[in-house]
Amino acid sequence: MALSEQERKLLEQLEASLMAEDPKLADTLSGSAATRVHRRKAALAGLGFMVGVVTLLIGVQIHPAVSIVGFLVMLGAALLGISSWARADGSPQPSKPAGPKPTPSSGSGSDFMSRLDERWRREHGDK
Question: What is the residue extent of each domain of the chain?
Answer without folding.
Answer: 35-89
